[in-house]
Design goal:
Elements (H helix, E strand, L loop, with lengths): L12 H10 L4 E5 L5 E5 H17 L7 E5 L4 H11 L4 E4 L6 H11 L3 E4 L4 H7 L8 E4 L15 E2 H6 L15 E6 L9 E5 H12 L11 E4 L11 H8 L2 E4 L6 H10 L4 E4 L1 H13 L9 E4 L6 H9 L3 E7 L6 E4 L11 H8 L10 E5 L14 E6 L21 E9 L5 E6 L4 E3 L2 E3 L1 H8 L5 E11 L3 E10 L7 H8 L11 E4 L13 H7 L11
Parallel strand pairs: 1-11, 3-4, 3-5, 4-8, 5-6, 6-7, 10-11, 10-12, 12-13, 13-14, 23-24
Antiparallel strand pairs: 1-2, 8-9, 14-15, 16-17, 17-18, 18-19, 20-21, 22-23
Helix pairs in contact: 1-2, 1-8, 2-3, 7-8, 9-10
The protein binds adenosine-5'-diphosphate (ADP).
Adenosine-5'-diphosphate binds next to strand 14, strand 18 and strand 19.
Length: 542
């Protein structure tokens, strides 16, 4: 027997319809790429998104066609986001921090028909446009007054482009499993892979994000997503915030500590989300200038492990931070370290211990850890295994890649190595390719990095495995010191000694002026492994 409830397809544009009708006057504030602060509302965003949809429809963009955005977080980007999805086209967010060759590879693989971009990226696109045969037109997110001279094919200023239609248009109708958006993984190993979200997965993911122990923003919150719309489906914020009527503050092109601080301060931001590098810049700026953020309640931090010292720095200012783990393939939320009973009563170091884990999944994500043969491992907080996940917002395949990515039970292997404890708190020990294999045992590079950045002189730390004649691999600690600091190998090792198992201690420490990062702010271990490929550890000589 079937239930007798309405057939109400879960379509992304229903979110902006809801925002416009129920929270129509709620503000979306942006730092524009041109400079000034811009203010609009959800009602206005919806009506301009309808113009985008109408214009795309008029330009012959059809169901399933890909439209790329290479753009910062602004109101215009959000309008395009909903406008593209609202006619059943696929909003393909491209990460502009990738190398131009990678951008070209991705745009060609996706066969994007239109590229919508910001002023910032016009020069980069001009260099590669000749090798992008599928692109019929470039739309620059600006107005006539700021539109540059450009060689880009059929280039038009966004404001002119949408001014040519009247907005008297209705969203298209289609099945909820229709593709809505696409985001490529960063491809630090091999070619990038396209993850194709559906309308249904995005709507369900928004509901997961709205849970109080997840991002949990409400209509009385003001949220600043430092995480770009192009990073892993905007962590779902472009859907969850409008679905709740949360005020949005979009930081545009300026993500440095001073600029983010200024927006948070003037707009009285209550919730924010981003990667650890961003928070490092914000915390440094605040410490150097003795600043505070009394309105800020919650900092969601993911993408890389959140160091303990960072959780503490926020806590010392009365700001809760919530460590989150996820990935592009998961839309991206996987787990969040909210404190459930009895841990919500904890204080001090014990509380930090729990907050430093990657947390537990919200309803809608199931996880397990297995050995290499796929046998499930116990949730005892000690046993490491491959972390595998399933859920309605988890990928089952990559775009145009013909291979099965799920195990027999339908779980996706995340490529991460983790422990899960009795209370379901998961802890990432490493990416499977970064874990250091010493004498048949595993050493977590993340644990060592987190410990090293706790040293007051250390700005950032990376650990890689170096070949060792006896142990196979041993850890090398690579340190970038804070500006103006000097330190010795012994000083750093002395600080770490006693805080980890003896055999986990790095065999050597080396200092660099800068640690390289990926386009999404992660430590670029492939580059470091390359840089130190001929390194001989002092312990290897004997
Ligand atoms: P990108 O490299 O483009 O950012 P993803 O966002 O998909 O791609 O990266 C997902 C990976 O990032 C995860 O598989 C995991 O290795 C790492 N990661 C994400 N969040 C955390 C976290 N809180 N702690 C440790 N690693 C994390």
């Amino acid at each position: 027997m079937l239930g007798l409830m309405q057939d109400w397809p879960l379509l992304c544009h229903r979110i902006i319809d809801h925002a416009a009708r129920i929270h129509g006057s709620q503000e979306v504030v942006s730092r524009s790429v041109e400079g000034p602060i811009h203010r609009t509302t959800y009602a206005e965003i919806r009506s301009r998104a309808l113009k985008v949809a109408q214009r795309l429809d008029r330009d012959g963009i059809k169901l399933g066609d890909r439209v790329a955005t290479i753009a910062w977080n602004t109101w215009r980007h959000l309008e395009c986001w909903y406008g593209i999805m609202g006619i059943g086209a696929v909003c393909h967010t491209v990460n502009p921090r990738l190398f131009p060759d990678q951008i070209a590879w991705i745009v060609n693989h996706a066969e994007d028909r239109i590229v919508i971009t910001d002023l910032t990226f016009v020069p980069i696109l001009e260099k590669i446009a000749g090798s992008l045969p599928s692109v019929e037109r470039y739309v620059v997110l600006t107005d006539k007054a700021h539109m540059p001279q450009t060689t880009l094919k059929n280039a038009v200023a966004y404001e002119d482009w949408i001014a040519e239609v009247d907005g008297n248009f209705a969203w298209k109708e289609f099945d909820e499993n229709t593709a809505a958006a696409m985001c490529y993984t960063s491809g630090t190993t091999g070619d990038p892979k396209g993850v194709l979200y559906s309308h249904r997965s995005n709507v369900l993911h928004a509901l997961m994000a709205n849970n109080k122990d997840s991002l949990g923003a409400s209509a009385s919150d003001t949220m600043l997503p430092v995480v770009p719309l192009f990073h892993a489906n905007s962590w779902g914020i472009a859907f969850s915030a409008p679905s709740m009527g949360t005020k949005l503050v979009m930081p545009g092109a300026k993500l440095d500590g001073a600029s983010v601080y200024e927006l948070m301060d003037t707009e009285k931001v209550t919730i924010t989300a981003g990667v650890p590098t961003v928070w490092l810049m914000l915390l440094n700026h605040m410490a150097n200038n003795k600043l505070s953020l009394p309105s800020l309640k919650l900092v969601v931090c993911g993408g890389s492990a959140m160091p303990r010292s960072m959780i503490k720095a926020f806590a010392d200012m009365g700001i809760e931070s919530r460590h989150a783990w996820g990935m592009t393939e998961m839309s991206p939320i996987g787990t969040l370290a909210a404190l459930k009973p009895p841990f919500d009563k904890l204080e001090g170091d014990k509380k930090l211990d729990v907050q430093q884990t990657q947390g537990y999944p919200p309803f809608g994500v199931e996880m397990k850890i297995t050995d290499d043969e796929g046998k499930e491992l116990p949730w005892d907080g000690k046993t490491f295994g491959r972390l595998k996940v399933s859920g309605p917002a988890v990928a089952k395949a990559y775009f145009r890649v013909d291979s099965n990515i799920l195990d027999k039970e339908g779980y996706f292997d995340t490529g991460d190595v983790a422990t899960i404890d009795e209370a379901a708190y998961m802890r990432i020990t490493d990416r499977s390719k970064d874990v250091i294999k010493s004498g048949g045992e595993w050493i977590s590079s993340i644990d060592l990095e987190n410990l090293a950045v706790g040293h007051p002189k250390v700005a950032e730390a990376a650990v890689i495995g170096i070949a060792h004649p006896k142990w196979d691999e041993r850890p090398l600690l690579i340190v970038q010191l804070k500006d103006g600091q000097t330190a010795t190998r012994e000083e750093i090792l002395g600080y770490m000694d006693g805080k980890i198992a003896k055999w986990w201690m790095p065999d050597d420490v080396t200092f660099v002026s800068a640690i390289p990062h990926t386009a999404t702010g992660k430590i670029l271990k492939t580059a470091l492994r390359d840089q130190f490929k001929d390194y001989t550890l002092p312990t290897a000589a004997a």
